[in-house]
Design a protein that fits this description.
This protein is an alpha/beta fold. It is built from 5 helices and 7 strands. It has a 5-stranded mixed β-sheet, sandwiched between helices.
Length: 226
């Protein structure tokens, strides 16, 4: 799996809790930089997550990190550490890697369709990604391509090994023939000679057998004539 400044590129959101709150704090305060955008989803006043963060992560397919506040009880802690620069009460922040673009805030309004808010966030990220020349390995498509390339390399290696084994076998045959080739040729010639002689003998036997048979027939015929 690819990493972005020690943060895994994932289809799943990263939960922000008290124990790992610095993951958000360092990003908001500019102490940590990522090559991919970061979306931070804060809890509502009712301690609910305003959008489906799992679906959001799936839709983005690894072109942005998704942070989600695990519980509203850490609101005060996060606000203090972030100097009140972080999102709260269901507000969603889109943080871009480029400082020039800063970040965008999408306010959650109770009763509005969360799907519309999610579409807005996805549009923000896609617009940014289309303008950037991101390293392909930082996306899931890049990860898959890297895996496929590894499989292709291993397959090519197996094919090359098979070709080399075949060539080695052919060379071995040639080596054997170069050593015993003359003897093999002599044996083949001897076999041909013996085969031809055998054919001659078979023909001679056939003629002799025919003469004997003819002689017996004549003897029998003359005997009957008497």
């Amino acid at each position: 799996m690819a990493n972005d400044n020690d943060l895994s590129v994932s289809f799943n959101p990263h939960k922000i809790e008290k124990k790992n709150s610095n993951l958000l704090v360092d990003m908001v305060c500019g102490r940590t930089k990522y090559d991919l955008p970061v979306i931070y989803v804060s809890r509502t006043k009712q301690n609910r997550i305003p959008i489906d963060v799992n679906r959001l992560s799936y839709l983005l397919k690894g072109i942005a990190h998704v942070f989600v506040q695990e519980d509203a009880s850490i609101n005060h802690l996060l606000s203090k550490k972030c100097n009140n620069q972080n999102e709260i009460n269901g507000t969603i922040g889109v943080y871009y890697p480029s400082q020039k673009m800063g970040h965008k805030r999408c306010r959650y309004i109770e009763g509005n369709r969360p799907e519309k808010l999610m579409e807005k966030i996805v549009d923000y990220v896609m617009q940014y990604s289309n303008l950037q020349n991101l390293d392909l390995i930082l996306t899931w498509q890049g990860v898959r391509s890297s895996i496929l390339n590894d499989i292709l390399d291993r397959t090519n290696e197996k094919c090359n090994n098979a070709i080399n084994d075949k060539q080695a076998a052919q060379n071995e045959v040639k080596s054997v023939y170069s050593v015993f080739g003359q003897e093999i040729d002599e044996l083949q010639d001897r076999i041909k000679e013996l085969t031809n002689r055998n054919l001659v003998l078979e023909e001679e036997n056939a003629r002799l057998s025919a003469k004997v048979t003819t002689k017996k027939i004549k003897q029998y015929y003359f005997k009957e004539m008497k």
